[in-house]
Amino acid sequence: MKRDLISINDLSREEIEGFFDIADCLKRDNARFGNILSGKSLALIFQKPSNRTRVSFEVGMYQLGGHVVYLGPGEINLGVRESIKDVAKTLSRYVNGIVLRTFAHKNVIELAGYADVPVINGLSDFSHPCQGLADIYTVKEKLGKTQGITFAYVGDGNNVCNSLLFACSKSGIHINVATPKGHEPDKGVLAAARRAAKLARCKVNLFNDPFSAVKGADVIYTDVWASMGQEKEAIKRRKIFKKFQLNKKLASLANKNVLIMHCLPAHRGEEITDDVIDGPNSVVFDQAENRLHVQKAILIKLLKGDK
Hints:
Radius of gyration: 19 Å
Structural class: alpha/beta
Largest sheet: 5 strands, parallel
């Protein structure tokens, strides 16, 4: 039976840790897995621009012995030139897996519903599961554990925030989310995260003050204030989010060895300052590298199965 990766909310803690175990093996001995996906093909359907997601999937598939077919916005025009159903059924005859990077989350759900091969969410307006998994893997790698860690997210309650809420709450990480009023995460996401947190013995806290959220934090994470598709709101959002900038003053309230994280691309001087993203506590580029290792683990698990 095929498995998809649509949202971290669909995963158990054991499944998350399973991805991390494979990623650990890949980082220790990449050559051992060099041909594990030999003869397999992966389609990348991208409706949005991409740096890390596209490159990490293409390089990762190559390193595992497989092949990638990239389909940009003008090549399929998903749902306009051709229905999602027809795309899913056609590509299922050609490839062994599909990554979709799209604006509307419903597109990922529909594609997965019709496809006979695994579908991976490469980003939607609701969720960015590959990013969230790589982020928590980085925390575990740097701090040696997840249980009991305090993670502060400062910024917009967007798709990355949603995925971090799911990932932290399932991994035993206390998560403090600080957003301006009116920019909080989805209420359904918060409710699901709090249910998971109860089982994992951790807490989900919501703040409208970034300084309260970061006190005593082991990790501080931020993201752009205006996501793709919100460019027209950028000027307005700069005013609303001004007090939520991750700078030295804010970071000083966290633990001395706090990890500084950002999913990139970063708008330097807006949501994060140069001295913080380039500072000694920043693990931003280790975090970016781990997209490669975690996504390779995802590809192995979904395209190869439990063999």
